[in-house]
Design a protein that fits this description.
two-stranded antiparallel ribbon; alpha+beta
Length: 72
């Protein structure tokens, strides 16, 4: 089973998205761009087009996102 991908969409924890690696790959194939490069709107549209739901963020995920966004 593949791992999860955690993305800070829009650069903040409230805009974070957690996806399975399979779903991230599907989005990349659908959009032709890396999930890291998509805007919040592009990510939302692609997820809606493909019927993909974000996985629930746990406290560890939130801490990782906060740490990464604080380092910028």
């Amino acid at each position: 089973m593949g791992g999860a991908v955690l993305l800070a969409v829009g650069g903040a924890a409230y805009g974070a998205v957690k996806l399975s690696q399979r779903d991230a790959d599907r989005i990349e194939e659908h959009t032709g761009a890396s999930v890291d490069e998509l805007t919040e709107d592009e990510m939302s549209t692609a997820m809606q087009d493909l019927g993909i739901q974000s996985m629930e963020l746990d406290e560890n995920d939130k801490a990782i996102i906060t740490k990464e966004t604080d380092s910028f």
